[in-house]
Fold this protein.
Amino acid sequence: MSGMIEHPERDLSAYLDEALAPAERASVAAHLEGCARCRAQLAELRATSRLIGGLTPLAPGRSLVPRLDRAPVWLRPVRLLGTMASGVFVFLFIASAVINSGSGLGGGTTTAERLAEKGQFGAAVNALASDAAKNVGGSTGAPSAAAPAAQRPPSLDTSRSTAASSPSPTAVARADAASTAAVTSTDTSASRTSFGPPPQVFLGLAALFALAAFVAHRRLRRT
Amino acid sequence: MDDLERARRGDARAFDSLARAHERALYSHVARILGPGADAEDVVQDAFVSAWRSMHHFEGTSFKAWLFRIARNRAIDVIRAQKRRPELPLDPPDDDSGDPGWAEPAAGGPELTDIAAGHEARAAVEAALALVPVEQRDALLLRDVEGFSYEEIASITVSELGTVKSRIHRARVTVRNELVAKGWKGSSG
Protein backbone atom coordinates (compact mmCIF):
# COMPACT_ATOMS: atom_id res chain seq x y z
CA MET A 1 0.00 0.00 0.00
CA SER A 2 2.73 2.42 1.05
CA GLY A 3 4.64 1.61 -2.15
CA MET A 4 1.85 3.20 -4.10
CA ILE A 5 2.11 6.49 -2.22
CA GLU A 6 3.85 9.21 -4.18
CA HIS A 7 5.95 11.28 -1.79
CA PRO A 8 6.26 14.93 -2.81
CA GLU A 9 9.97 14.96 -1.96
CA ARG A 10 10.95 17.38 -4.70
CA ASP A 11 8.37 19.86 -3.49
CA LEU A 12 9.46 19.83 0.12
CA SER A 13 11.99 22.67 -0.21
CA ALA A 14 9.53 24.81 -2.12
CA TYR A 15 6.91 23.97 0.52
CA LEU A 16 9.37 24.99 3.21
CA ASP A 17 10.05 28.25 1.40
CA GLU A 18 6.36 28.90 0.79
CA ALA A 19 7.04 28.98 -2.92
CA LEU A 20 4.32 26.60 -4.02
CA ALA A 21 1.08 27.60 -5.63
CA PRO A 22 -1.87 27.37 -3.18
CA ALA A 23 -3.21 24.15 -4.67
CA GLU A 24 0.22 22.45 -4.57
CA ARG A 25 0.82 23.68 -1.07
CA ALA A 26 -2.50 22.28 0.11
CA SER A 27 -1.70 18.95 -1.52
CA VAL A 28 1.72 18.70 0.14
CA ALA A 29 0.29 19.76 3.48
CA ALA A 30 -2.33 17.06 3.24
CA HIS A 31 0.35 14.49 2.48
CA LEU A 32 2.54 15.60 5.36
CA GLU A 33 -0.37 15.03 7.74
CA GLY A 34 -0.17 11.33 7.15
CA CYS A 35 3.51 10.75 6.22
CA ALA A 36 6.10 10.66 9.01
CA ARG A 37 8.91 10.10 6.54
CA CYS A 38 8.19 13.30 4.60
CA ARG A 39 7.73 15.22 7.85
CA ALA A 40 11.16 14.04 8.95
CA GLN A 41 12.70 15.02 5.66
CA LEU A 42 11.02 18.41 5.86
CA ALA A 43 12.46 18.90 9.35
CA GLU A 44 15.95 18.05 8.10
CA LEU A 45 15.64 20.35 5.16
CA ARG A 46 14.52 23.11 7.52
CA ALA A 47 17.49 22.42 9.80
CA THR A 48 19.86 22.46 6.82
CA SER A 49 18.38 25.72 5.60
CA ARG A 50 18.84 27.29 9.02
CA LEU A 51 22.43 26.12 9.20
CA ILE A 52 23.17 27.67 5.83
CA GLY A 53 21.35 30.85 6.78
CA GLY A 54 23.37 31.06 9.97
CA LEU A 55 26.71 31.06 8.22
CA THR A 56 28.98 33.94 9.09
CA PRO A 57 29.33 36.34 6.18
CA LEU A 58 32.77 36.26 4.60
CA ALA A 59 34.67 39.50 4.78
CA PRO A 60 36.76 40.89 1.94
CA GLY A 61 40.37 41.75 2.58
CA ARG A 62 39.91 45.28 1.31
CA SER A 63 37.25 47.82 0.54
CA LEU A 64 35.52 46.85 -2.68
CA VAL A 65 33.52 50.01 -3.23
CA PRO A 66 35.47 51.97 -5.80
CA ARG A 67 35.77 55.75 -5.80
CA LEU A 68 32.92 56.82 -7.91
CA ASP A 69 33.23 60.59 -8.00
CA ARG A 70 32.07 60.77 -11.55
CA ALA A 71 33.73 63.61 -13.34
CA PRO A 72 31.34 66.29 -14.53
CA VAL A 73 30.68 66.22 -18.25
CA TRP A 74 32.31 69.62 -18.70
CA LEU A 75 35.65 68.41 -17.36
CA ARG A 76 36.88 66.99 -20.67
CA PRO A 77 36.27 70.22 -22.59
CA VAL A 78 37.98 72.10 -19.78
CA ARG A 79 41.02 69.87 -20.11
CA LEU A 80 41.11 70.29 -23.88
CA LEU A 81 40.54 74.03 -23.88
CA GLY A 82 42.93 74.52 -20.98
CA THR A 83 45.68 72.74 -22.85
CA MET A 84 45.03 74.65 -26.05
CA ALA A 85 44.76 78.00 -24.31
CA SER A 86 47.94 77.32 -22.41
CA GLY A 87 49.74 76.63 -25.68
CA VAL A 88 48.38 79.78 -27.26
CA PHE A 89 49.48 81.91 -24.33
CA VAL A 90 52.93 80.35 -24.32
CA PHE A 91 53.19 81.31 -27.98
CA LEU A 92 51.98 84.82 -27.22
CA PHE A 93 54.44 85.08 -24.38
CA ILE A 94 57.33 84.12 -26.61
CA ALA A 95 56.17 86.37 -29.41
CA SER A 96 55.65 89.29 -27.07
CA ALA A 97 59.02 88.76 -25.42
CA VAL A 98 60.79 88.63 -28.79
CA ILE A 99 59.08 91.76 -30.05
CA ASN A 100 59.73 93.73 -26.92
CA SER A 101 63.32 92.61 -26.66
CA GLY A 102 63.72 93.51 -30.32
CA SER A 103 62.55 97.07 -29.66
CA GLY A 104 64.83 97.35 -26.65
CA LEU A 105 68.00 95.76 -27.98
CA GLY A 106 67.82 96.26 -31.69
CA GLY A 107 70.16 99.34 -31.67
CA GLY A 108 67.41 101.62 -32.85
CA THR A 109 66.61 102.93 -29.41
CA THR A 110 68.27 106.21 -28.82
CA THR A 111 68.43 108.33 -25.73
CA ALA A 112 65.43 110.22 -27.08
CA GLU A 113 63.42 107.03 -27.48
CA ARG A 114 64.20 105.86 -24.00
CA LEU A 115 63.18 109.24 -22.61
CA ALA A 116 60.05 109.13 -24.68
CA GLU A 117 59.22 105.71 -23.28
CA LYS A 118 59.44 107.25 -19.85
CA GLY A 119 57.07 110.03 -20.90
CA GLN A 120 59.70 112.74 -20.87
CA PHE A 121 58.85 113.92 -24.34
CA GLY A 122 60.31 117.42 -24.02
CA ALA A 123 63.65 116.03 -22.89
CA ALA A 124 63.48 113.49 -25.65
CA VAL A 125 62.99 116.18 -28.23
CA ASN A 126 65.89 118.15 -26.84
CA ALA A 127 68.09 115.08 -26.71
CA LEU A 128 67.32 114.25 -30.29
CA ALA A 129 67.87 117.82 -31.36
CA SER A 130 71.20 117.72 -29.57
CA ASP A 131 72.19 114.54 -31.38
CA ALA A 132 71.13 116.02 -34.67
CA ALA A 133 73.04 119.23 -34.00
CA LYS A 134 76.15 117.24 -33.12
CA ASN A 135 75.89 115.41 -36.37
CA VAL A 136 75.38 118.64 -38.26
CA GLY A 137 78.22 120.33 -36.42
CA GLY A 138 80.49 117.45 -37.05
CA SER A 139 79.88 117.58 -40.75
CA THR A 140 79.82 121.37 -41.34
CA GLY A 141 82.09 122.69 -38.62
CA ALA A 142 79.42 125.22 -37.57
CA PRO A 143 78.80 125.71 -33.85
CA SER A 144 76.07 123.60 -32.37
CA ALA A 145 72.80 125.43 -32.08
CA ALA A 146 70.90 122.72 -30.34
CA ALA A 147 73.42 121.95 -27.64
CA PRO A 148 72.43 124.78 -25.33
CA ALA A 149 68.80 123.92 -25.92
CA ALA A 150 69.40 120.42 -24.73
CA GLN A 151 70.59 121.81 -21.41
CA ARG A 152 67.44 123.82 -20.92
CA PRO A 153 64.44 122.67 -19.05
CA PRO A 154 62.20 120.32 -20.98
CA SER A 155 59.41 122.88 -20.99
CA LEU A 156 61.23 125.11 -23.44
CA ASP A 157 60.31 124.48 -27.02
CA THR A 158 62.79 124.05 -29.84
CA SER A 159 61.79 127.11 -31.88
CA ARG A 160 62.51 129.41 -28.96
CA SER A 161 65.84 127.84 -28.32
CA THR A 162 66.91 128.14 -31.92
CA ALA A 163 65.71 131.75 -32.11
CA ALA A 164 67.56 132.73 -28.97
CA SER A 165 70.88 131.29 -29.98
CA SER A 166 70.69 132.78 -33.51
CA PRO A 167 72.42 129.98 -35.33
CA SER A 168 73.08 129.84 -39.01
CA PRO A 169 70.00 129.21 -41.24
CA THR A 170 71.32 125.82 -42.28
CA ALA A 171 71.78 124.71 -38.71
CA VAL A 172 68.30 125.93 -37.78
CA ALA A 173 66.76 124.09 -40.66
CA ARG A 174 68.56 120.89 -39.74
CA ALA A 175 67.66 121.28 -36.08
CA ASP A 176 64.01 121.72 -37.03
CA ALA A 177 64.21 118.65 -39.18
CA ALA A 178 65.77 116.80 -36.28
CA SER A 179 62.96 117.97 -34.01
CA THR A 180 60.41 116.64 -36.42
CA ALA A 181 62.29 113.39 -36.63
CA ALA A 182 62.42 113.25 -32.86
CA VAL A 183 58.68 113.60 -32.58
CA THR A 184 58.21 110.92 -35.20
CA SER A 185 60.67 108.68 -33.43
CA THR A 186 58.90 109.27 -30.16
CA ASP A 187 55.60 108.28 -31.71
CA THR A 188 57.11 105.11 -33.10
CA SER A 189 58.64 104.19 -29.80
CA ALA A 190 55.36 104.82 -28.01
CA SER A 191 53.53 102.60 -30.45
CA ARG A 192 56.03 99.83 -29.79
CA THR A 193 55.54 99.92 -26.05
CA SER A 194 51.77 99.78 -26.44
CA PHE A 195 51.92 96.34 -28.13
CA GLY A 196 49.53 94.33 -25.92
CA PRO A 197 50.12 93.54 -22.29
CA PRO A 198 53.57 92.71 -20.94
CA PRO A 199 54.89 89.19 -21.71
CA GLN A 200 54.56 88.24 -18.07
CA VAL A 201 50.79 88.47 -18.39
CA PHE A 202 50.81 85.90 -21.18
CA LEU A 203 53.10 83.67 -19.16
CA GLY A 204 50.79 83.91 -16.17
CA LEU A 205 47.75 83.09 -18.26
CA ALA A 206 49.56 80.14 -19.82
CA ALA A 207 50.42 78.82 -16.37
CA LEU A 208 46.84 79.34 -15.20
CA PHE A 209 45.32 77.42 -18.10
CA ALA A 210 47.95 74.71 -17.81
CA LEU A 211 47.06 74.31 -14.15
CA ALA A 212 43.34 74.08 -14.98
CA ALA A 213 44.07 71.46 -17.64
CA PHE A 214 46.25 69.51 -15.22
CA VAL A 215 43.64 69.52 -12.46
CA ALA A 216 40.96 68.42 -14.93
CA HIS A 217 43.25 65.66 -16.17
CA ARG A 218 43.94 64.39 -12.67
CA ARG A 219 40.25 64.37 -11.87
CA LEU A 220 39.42 62.52 -15.07
CA ARG A 221 42.08 59.92 -14.39
CA ARG A 222 40.59 59.16 -10.99
CA THR A 223 37.26 58.22 -12.51
CA MET B 1 14.39 61.42 -2.32
CA ASP B 2 16.11 58.21 -1.20
CA ASP B 3 19.63 57.00 -1.95
CA LEU B 4 18.44 54.83 -4.81
CA GLU B 5 16.78 57.71 -6.63
CA ARG B 6 19.73 60.00 -6.01
CA ALA B 7 22.15 57.34 -7.23
CA ARG B 8 20.05 56.86 -10.32
CA ARG B 9 20.41 60.58 -10.99
CA GLY B 10 24.17 60.35 -10.77
CA ASP B 11 24.83 61.04 -7.10
CA ALA B 12 28.06 59.19 -6.39
CA ARG B 13 27.71 59.52 -2.65
CA ALA B 14 24.27 57.96 -2.69
CA PHE B 15 25.59 55.07 -4.76
CA ASP B 16 28.54 54.72 -2.44
CA SER B 17 26.15 54.43 0.49
CA LEU B 18 24.09 51.78 -1.30
CA ALA B 19 27.17 49.85 -2.35
CA ARG B 20 28.62 49.81 1.14
CA ALA B 21 25.33 48.49 2.50
CA HIS B 22 25.60 45.45 0.21
CA GLU B 23 29.37 45.10 -0.05
CA ARG B 24 29.87 42.33 2.46
CA ALA B 25 26.84 40.28 1.45
CA LEU B 26 27.83 40.54 -2.17
CA TYR B 27 31.41 39.53 -1.50
CA SER B 28 30.28 36.72 0.74
CA HIS B 29 28.04 35.33 -1.98
CA VAL B 30 30.62 35.62 -4.73
CA ALA B 31 33.32 34.21 -2.48
CA ARG B 32 31.19 31.11 -1.88
CA ILE B 33 30.86 30.69 -5.61
CA LEU B 34 34.43 31.45 -6.68
CA GLY B 35 36.24 30.83 -3.43
CA PRO B 36 37.47 33.59 -1.14
CA GLY B 37 40.25 35.82 -2.40
CA ALA B 38 41.29 38.22 -5.09
CA ASP B 39 39.04 36.80 -7.82
CA ALA B 40 35.94 37.29 -5.72
CA GLU B 41 37.06 40.76 -4.67
CA ASP B 42 37.71 41.77 -8.26
CA VAL B 43 34.35 40.45 -9.37
CA VAL B 44 32.53 42.44 -6.70
CA GLN B 45 34.48 45.59 -7.43
CA ASP B 46 33.83 45.23 -11.15
CA ALA B 47 30.18 44.65 -10.40
CA PHE B 48 30.02 47.93 -8.47
CA VAL B 49 31.68 49.82 -11.28
CA SER B 50 29.39 48.21 -13.82
CA ALA B 51 26.34 48.95 -11.71
CA TRP B 52 27.38 52.57 -11.32
CA ARG B 53 27.94 53.01 -15.03
CA SER B 54 24.55 51.58 -15.91
CA MET B 55 22.76 53.04 -12.93
CA HIS B 56 20.60 55.24 -15.14
CA HIS B 57 19.30 52.06 -16.84
CA PHE B 58 18.14 50.57 -13.56
CA GLU B 59 14.37 50.57 -13.48
CA GLY B 60 13.62 47.76 -11.05
CA THR B 61 12.62 48.05 -7.45
CA SER B 62 15.24 45.83 -5.84
CA PHE B 63 18.67 47.35 -6.11
CA LYS B 64 20.07 44.44 -4.11
CA ALA B 65 18.71 41.87 -6.56
CA TRP B 66 20.08 43.86 -9.48
CA LEU B 67 23.49 44.10 -7.86
CA PHE B 68 23.51 40.37 -7.11
CA ARG B 69 22.55 39.63 -10.67
CA ILE B 70 25.51 41.61 -12.03
CA ALA B 71 27.99 40.13 -9.57
CA ARG B 72 26.67 36.60 -9.89
CA ASN B 73 26.82 36.69 -13.68
CA ARG B 74 30.39 37.94 -13.56
CA ALA B 75 31.32 35.18 -11.15
CA ILE B 76 29.79 32.57 -13.44
CA ASP B 77 31.70 34.09 -16.36
CA VAL B 78 34.93 33.76 -14.40
CA ILE B 79 34.24 30.08 -13.71
CA ARG B 80 33.41 29.44 -17.33
CA ALA B 81 36.62 31.16 -18.37
CA GLN B 82 38.69 29.15 -15.93
CA LYS B 83 37.15 25.70 -16.47
CA ARG B 84 39.39 24.28 -13.82
CA ARG B 85 36.77 22.46 -11.83
CA PRO B 86 35.39 19.65 -13.92
CA GLU B 87 34.22 17.91 -10.76
CA LEU B 88 31.65 20.68 -10.36
CA PRO B 89 29.58 20.78 -13.53
CA LEU B 90 28.29 24.26 -14.21
CA ASP B 91 25.02 23.07 -15.63
CA PRO B 92 23.97 19.77 -14.07
CA PRO B 93 21.07 18.03 -15.76
CA ASP B 94 17.69 19.04 -14.44
CA ASP B 95 16.20 15.60 -14.93
CA ASP B 96 15.98 12.89 -12.30
CA SER B 97 19.52 11.69 -13.07
CA GLY B 98 20.82 14.79 -11.29
CA ASP B 99 18.94 14.10 -8.09
CA PRO B 100 21.29 13.52 -5.19
CA GLY B 101 18.94 11.10 -3.41
CA TRP B 102 18.28 10.95 0.27
CA ALA B 103 21.25 9.41 2.06
CA GLU B 104 20.45 7.39 5.17
CA PRO B 105 22.45 8.45 8.21
CA ALA B 106 24.85 6.15 9.95
CA ALA B 107 24.04 5.15 13.48
CA GLY B 108 25.19 7.53 16.18
CA GLY B 109 26.10 11.17 15.98
CA PRO B 110 23.99 14.17 16.81
CA GLU B 111 20.63 14.81 15.31
CA LEU B 112 20.85 17.06 12.29
CA THR B 113 18.06 19.15 13.66
CA ASP B 114 19.97 19.60 16.91
CA ILE B 115 23.19 20.90 15.42
CA ALA B 116 24.10 24.19 16.97
CA ALA B 117 25.51 26.83 14.68
CA GLY B 118 28.90 26.58 16.32
CA HIS B 119 32.26 26.98 14.66
CA GLU B 120 32.56 23.29 13.86
CA ALA B 121 29.09 23.14 12.39
CA ARG B 122 29.69 26.24 10.28
CA ALA B 123 32.92 24.81 8.95
CA ALA B 124 31.14 21.56 8.10
CA VAL B 125 28.37 23.43 6.31
CA GLU B 126 30.88 25.55 4.37
CA ALA B 127 32.69 22.40 3.32
CA ALA B 128 29.44 20.74 2.30
CA LEU B 129 28.39 23.80 0.31
CA ALA B 130 31.68 23.77 -1.57
CA LEU B 131 30.74 20.36 -2.97
CA VAL B 132 27.43 21.54 -4.40
CA PRO B 133 27.41 22.32 -8.13
CA VAL B 134 27.89 26.01 -8.74
CA GLU B 135 24.48 27.00 -10.03
CA GLN B 136 22.67 24.96 -7.39
CA ARG B 137 24.86 26.50 -4.72
CA ASP B 138 24.21 29.93 -6.15
CA ALA B 139 20.44 29.46 -5.96
CA LEU B 140 20.57 27.94 -2.49
CA LEU B 141 22.69 30.78 -1.10
CA LEU B 142 20.46 33.38 -2.68
CA ARG B 143 17.54 31.77 -0.89
CA ASP B 144 18.89 30.70 2.49
CA VAL B 145 21.50 33.39 3.10
CA GLU B 146 20.10 36.39 1.25
CA GLY B 147 16.43 35.58 1.59
CA PHE B 148 15.45 36.21 -2.03
CA SER B 149 12.16 34.79 -3.21
CA TYR B 150 12.09 32.13 -5.91
CA GLU B 151 10.87 34.72 -8.39
CA GLU B 152 13.75 37.03 -7.56
CA ILE B 153 16.24 34.17 -7.84
CA ALA B 154 14.81 33.29 -11.23
CA SER B 155 15.37 36.88 -12.29
CA ILE B 156 18.87 37.07 -10.84
CA THR B 157 20.00 33.82 -12.37
CA VAL B 158 17.98 34.29 -15.57
CA SER B 159 16.32 30.90 -15.06
CA GLU B 160 12.89 29.39 -15.10
CA LEU B 161 11.04 29.17 -11.82
CA GLY B 162 10.97 25.39 -12.04
CA THR B 163 14.74 25.32 -12.50
CA VAL B 164 15.20 27.48 -9.43
CA LYS B 165 12.95 25.21 -7.40
CA SER B 166 14.85 22.15 -8.53
CA ARG B 167 18.28 23.68 -7.91
CA ILE B 168 17.45 24.81 -4.42
CA HIS B 169 16.05 21.46 -3.42
CA ARG B 170 18.95 19.48 -4.84
CA ALA B 171 21.47 21.79 -3.22
CA ARG B 172 19.80 21.45 0.17
CA VAL B 173 19.66 17.70 -0.07
CA THR B 174 23.34 17.59 -1.09
CA VAL B 175 24.36 19.70 1.89
CA ARG B 176 22.22 17.59 4.19
CA ASN B 177 23.74 14.39 2.81
CA GLU B 178 27.25 15.74 3.28
CA LEU B 179 26.50 16.60 6.87
CA VAL B 180 25.01 13.18 7.46
CA ALA B 181 28.10 11.64 5.89
CA LYS B 182 30.19 13.45 8.50
CA GLY B 183 28.42 11.74 11.31
CA TRP B 184 25.36 13.76 11.98
CA LYS B 185 22.28 11.65 12.27
CA GLY B 186 19.21 12.68 10.36
CA SER B 187 16.06 12.68 12.44
CA SER B 188 14.56 10.22 10.00
CA GLY B 189 17.28 7.69 10.79
Helices of chain B lie at 3-8, 12-34, 38-53, 63-82, 119-130, 134-144, 150-156, 161-181. The CA atoms of residues 25 and 77 of chain B lie 19 Å apart. Residues 96-181 of chain B form a domain with the Arc Repressor Mutant, subunit A fold (CATH 1.10.10.10).
